[in-house]
Amino acid sequence: MASYEVVAQSRKEQGTGASRRLRLSGRVPAIVYGGKKDAESVDLDHNAIWNQLRHEKFHASILSLVVDGKPQQVLLRSVNMHPWKAQVQHVDFQRIAADEKIRMKVPLHFSGAESSPAVKGQSATVSHILNEIEIRCLPADLPEFIPVDLSGLTVGNTVHVKDLLLPKGVEVVLRGKENPAVVICQVPRASADDESTAAPSAADVPAAKQKAPDAAAKDAPAKK
């Protein structure tokens, strides 16, 4: 079920000049493609789509795109932003069908690292290598995110993509035998390095290596 509604209107004018005029009037040119229909040119209200794009969930959800009052289910596929202005330049949507699997990048949500044996017991550092993964599933099975529980993480442990617990009906898109790392856990070496480079005390130096008294000073007569 679509969780966001995007209101659009069809447009007939094409080209760079037409798109520029749309942007100056507060609209955003967009295109809808896929399915058994031809690609359709539409435009959106800039402020409305700008606010929706600020939500992480919007980027990994099935959207209800209402064009001239007629809704259709789509996925957000591409967003072009202005190089330095806070302005949406163009948006691409893809139509979907309920019985056809889709491929989508969804975010990873990490939890439990603070209470893990590695962090709590050994002050280890947890590095996130990936923050999203690409999955394949039917539209009805599309998750908002993939949870990653790190509460059992130990030092030297690496969590890979194939270690993730995926919702029913969801599979990760991988190429060949690849299994990239998601999280790496290591203990900082700073404290160990500090100890190894510290100057040894006299008590730590073997007696045989301590400097012997000066022989001449030893044999000199006592001053009267």
Verbal overview:
The protein is α+β, with helices and mostly antiparallel strands and 224 residues long. The protein is 18% helix and 36% strand. The protein contains 6 helices and 13 strands. It has helices spanning 16-24, 46-53, 56-59, 117-122, 190-197, 215-219, and strands spanning 4-10, 27-33, 40-45, 63-67, 70-81, 88-95, 102-111, 125-128, 132-137, 146-149, 158-160, 171-172, 181-186. The strands form 3 sheets. Strands 1-3-2-6-5-4 form a 6-stranded mixed barrel. Strands 10-7-9-12 form a 4-stranded mixed beta sheet, with no helix packed on it. The protein has a 3-stranded antiparallel beta sheet with strand order 8-13-11, with no helix packed on it. The longest helix is centred in the N-terminal third of the chain and has 9 residues, at 16-24. It is elongated, with a radius of gyration of 31 Å. It starts with a strand and ends in a 5-residue tail after the last helix.
Tags for this entry?
alpha+beta; four-stranded mixed β-sheet; 224 residues; six-stranded mixed β-barrel
Short description:
This protein has helices at 16-24, 46-53, 56-59, 117-122, 190-197, 215-219, and strands at residues 4-10, 27-33, 40-45, 63-67, 70-81, 88-95, 102-111, 125-128, 132-137, 146-149, 158-160, 171-172, 181-186. By secondary structure, the protein is of the alpha+beta class.
